C-alpha cells in the first residue's frame, strides 16, 4: 500500500507530516504516559495544547482581540442554528445571499428561530455565479447578513468581501477556512467545520465579534448559549480533544509552510493549474461556473458524456487519485484542493485528465 | 517513557490494543490509501465501519429493533437540551430525579424548553445516596422521567432500574455506558458521551425508542431534529468520523473480552477491590456514599486531612497512577475505573493507598 492523492470534499486530506506526528505520539503524548485521547481536557498539558491552537489561529488569521475564537462541536450546520439563536431575537431579520447548497441549509436552520429574507440568490442560474452586489435587497436594520464565501458543492467562491454597510457579515467558511489571508475585522462572524482545510471532522470553529453575543433576549439551554463557551475557553463541556489537538498540529504546519499568505499563493497556483487543465482541454472538460466566481478550493467539472464518469473515476483511483466523484446534487466530478493538497497532486490530476481525454476523446 | 494507569474521569483510558491498532493503521486505513480521518463519511469503507459499530453496539447491549441508535456530537449536555426539544412540547412536564451534578445540568438544559418538576433529590444530603423510590413525586402524564444512573462526580450509582410505570425513562449513562448488561427495553432513552467507557470525546450516543420521536410539534432547526439523524443513519451532517471509528474498535475489544456480562463482572471485581482498600484502611480513607448506592465506575475518596491531597497525588503520579484528583465541586480524590481500566491498575492503586496510609498514618 501507499498513500494516494485524496481530493475528497471533507473529511479531506491532512498534511502528511501532521499524520506522522499523530502516529508517532499516539500511545504516549508529551510525557503524559497516556494518549492525547486519554488525558483530561482540564489537565495542564491539554489546556496548553488547546490554548496554543487558539494562539496560532489568532496569529495566522490576524484575528483582532475583540473577537472570540470558539472551538465547538456539531459542524457548520449546527453552528448556523446556534448563531440564529445567539445573534438575534425571534423578531429580527437575517438577510441571506445564496450561491449554493450550504447557503440554503443555513436558511433552513435559521428560519425556525428568526425572520429570514433572501437578499439575493443565483439559484435560478444553477448557482453558477454570484449575484451582482448592486442587486442585493438588504433589509434595513437586519441583525446580520449571511453568505457562504465558498460553496463546496457548486464550486462558487467570492474573491472579495461584500460591503454590507454596518450590518454584521456572517460567513460560513467551512470550505475556505484559512485558505488565504482574510480581513477578519470586516466580519461579525466567521464559522465553519474543521474537516476541510484545518483538521478532522467533529470540530467546528466560530470567530465572533465580542459585542454580538449575549443580546438575544431568549431563554436558551445553557449549552446553546455561545457566551458560556466564550467565558469558559470553549470548555463549558468536554470538548472533542483529539480533533482539537490535530487542528493544532495543522496550524503549526501552516505556520511552517509560511502562513496564510504562502498557503494562499500555493492554493492560487493549484487552482490555476486545474482550471487550465479544464479550459485547455478543447471543451472535453467543462466547469460551469462563471470565471470570476470560480472556487480555488472545490473544482467541479464534467466530462463530455456522463457515461464516461465511471471509467474516469475507476482509472483515476488506479492512478492514485481519490475522491473525485462530484456531489450527488450536481453529478460529474469534483476535485477538492484544500490546504493539505500538494501541488504535485494537482499536477498528477491534470496529467491524468489530459491522458484520459486523449484516450477517450 | 511508558504508559501509566490512567484514572481520569473522562476523557479516560482506552484499551491499549485499540490504541495500538489506531496507531498501526493511522497513515493508511484498510487499503484506502489514506487515513481514516481523511476518507469521506459517505464512502463505502467508512459507511461499513459506521454500520459495524452500530451492529456491535446493538448486539452487545441487546438493543431491541424498535430503538434508534444515533451517533451524535455535543456530549450528553447537548443531548439533554436536544431531548427536551425532541421528546415533548413546551407545555409538557419532565420529571427529574437528582442524585448529583449531572442531573442538575440536565435540568438546566431542559428547563428553557419545557416544564420541569424535581420528583426527588438527594441534594440536601450532599448527594451521598439515592432518594427512596416510594418518596418520588412523579407527575401524572409526564412526558418522561429523567435520571442519571451513575453520577460521575459524586460517585453514586443506581444498581436497579427504577419502576416509573408507563412513563418513558430517560437516562444519562455517560459514565456507565455498557459497563454491565442492562435491559434497554425498560428505557425510553439511554444517552451519553462516549469519552468515559466507549471511546474518545466528541462523540455521543442516543438509544431512543422509535415511537418517541417526531411528536413534539415544535418548529425546530432541521439539525436539532433527531428524527433527521435517525432517518439518515446519523449522517444528516458530517459525523465525527475518527471518534466513531475508535468507538467501533472499542466495541470489538469488548466483544473479544467476552461482552457486557464479562465486562460487568470484571467491573464489579474492580470496584469491590477498591472499596475494600478504602473500607479496610481503618478509617484512613473515606468514601461518603451510602454503600448500596456506591458507584462501580467512579470512586471518590478522602484522606484524613486535605493537606495530604497534594503529596498523595504527587506520589501516585510517580508510581504511575494518573488522574486521581477529585472534581473541584467535591474535592478529595476520585478513581474512575471504566471498562478500559485493567484489574492490575486497581490492584496497583490499592497497594499504593495502603503504602501511603502506612507512611502517612
Automatic annotation (TrEMBL), chains A, B:
Its main location: cytoplasm. InterPro entries: Aminotrans_V_dom, Aminotrans_V_PyrdxlP_BS, Pser_aminoTfrase, PyrdxlP-dep_Trfase, PyrdxlP-dep_Trfase_major, PyrdxlP-dep_Trfase_small. It is found in: Cytoplasm. The keyword Transferase applies. Pyridoxal 5'-phosphate binds at residues 76-77, 102, 152, 172, 195, 237-238. Pfam families: Aminotran_5. Residues 5-349 form the Aminotransferase class V domain. Catalyzes the reversible conversion of 3-phosphohydroxypyruvate to phosphoserine and of 3-hydroxy-2-oxo-4-phosphonooxybutanoate to phosphohydroxythreonine. GO terms for biological process: L-serine biosynthetic process; pyridoxine biosynthetic process. GO terms for cellular component: cytoplasm. Binds 1 pyridoxal phosphate per subunit. Coiled coil: none annotated. Belongs to the class-V pyridoxal-phosphate-dependent aminotransferase family. SerC subfamily. Its EC number is 2.6.1.52. Homodimer. GO terms for molecular function: O-phospho-L-serine:2-oxoglutarate aminotransferase activity; pyridoxal phosphate binding. This is Phosphoserine aminotransferase. It is an enzyme of class 2 (transferase). It catalyses: 4-(phosphooxy)-L-threonine + 2-oxoglutarate = (R)-3-hydroxy-2-oxo-4-phosphooxybutanoate + L-glutamate; O-phospho-L-serine + 2-oxoglutarate = 3-phosphooxypyruvate + L-glutamate. Its cofactor is pyridoxal 5'-phosphate. The modification N6-(pyridoxal phosphate)lysine is found at residue 196. Pathway: Cofactor biosynthesis; pyridoxine 5'-phosphate biosynthesis; pyridoxine 5'-phosphate from D-erythrose 4-phosphate: step 3/5; Amino-acid biosynthesis; L-serine biosynthesis; L-serine from 3-phospho-D-glycerate: step 2/3. The gene is serC. L-glutamate binds at residue 42.
Amino acid at each position: 500500500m501507499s498513500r494516494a492523492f485524496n481530493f475528497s470534499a471533507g473529511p479531506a486530506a491532512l498534511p502528511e507530516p501532521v499524520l506522522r506526528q499523530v502516529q508517532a505520539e499516539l500511545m504516549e503524548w508529551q510525557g503524559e504516559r497516556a494518549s492525547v485521547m486519554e488525558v483530561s481536557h482540564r489537565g495542564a498539558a491539554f489546556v496548553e495544547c488547546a490554548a496554543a491552537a487558539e494562539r496560532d489561529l489568532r496569529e495566522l488569521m490576524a484575528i483582532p482581540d475583540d473577537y472570540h475564537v470558539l472551538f465547538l462541536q456539531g459542524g457548520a450546520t449546527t453552528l448556523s442554528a446556534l448563531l440564529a439563536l445567539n445573534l438575534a431575537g425571534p423578531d429580527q431579520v437575517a438577510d441571506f445571499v445564496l450561491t449554493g447548497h450550504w447557503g440554503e441549509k443555513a436558511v433552513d436552520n435559521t428560519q425556525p428561530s428568526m425572520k429570514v429574507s433572501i437578499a439575493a440568490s443565483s439559484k435560478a442560474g444553477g448557482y453558477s455565479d454570484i449575484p451582482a452586489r448592486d442587486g442585493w435587497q438588504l433589509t434595513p436594520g437586519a441583525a446580520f447578513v449571511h453568505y457562504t464565501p465558498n460553496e463546496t458543492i457548486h464550486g462558487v467562491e467570492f474573491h472579495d468581501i461584500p460591503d454590507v454597510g454596518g450590518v454584521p457579515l456572517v460567513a460560513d467558511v467551512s470550505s475556505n477556512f484559512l485558505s488565504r489571508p482574510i480581513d477578519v475585522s470586516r466580519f461579525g462572524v466567521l464559522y465553519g467545520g474543521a474537516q476541510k482545510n484545518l483538521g478532522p471532522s467533529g470540530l467546528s470553529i466560530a470567530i465572533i465579534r465580542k459585542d454580538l453575543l449575549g443580546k438575544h433576549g431568549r431563554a436558551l439551554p445553557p449549552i446553546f448559549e455561545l457566551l458560556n463557551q466564550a467565558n469558559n475557553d470553549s470548555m463549558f463541556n468536554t470538548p472533542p480533544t483529539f480533533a482539537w489537538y490535530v487542528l493544532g498540529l495543522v496550524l503549526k504546519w501552516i505556520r511552517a509552510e509560511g502562513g496564510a499568505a504562502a498557503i494562499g499563493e500555493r492554493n492560487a497556483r493549484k487552482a490555476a493549474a486545474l482550471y487550465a487543465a479544464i479550459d485547455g482541454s478543447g471543451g472535453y472538460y467543462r466547469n460551469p461556473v462563471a470565471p470570476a466566481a470560480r472556487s480555488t478550493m472545490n473544482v467541479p467539472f464534467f466530462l463530455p458524456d456522463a457515461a464516461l464518469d465511471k471509467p474516469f473515476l475507476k482509472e483515476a483511483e488506479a492512478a492514485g487519485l481519490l475522491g473525485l466523484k462530484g456531489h450527488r446534487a450536481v453529478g460529474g466530478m469534483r476535485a477538492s484542493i484544500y490546504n493539505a493538497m500538494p501541488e504535485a497532486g494537482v499536477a498528477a490530476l491534470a496529467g491524468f485528465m489530459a491522458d484520459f481525454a486523449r484516450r477517450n476523446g
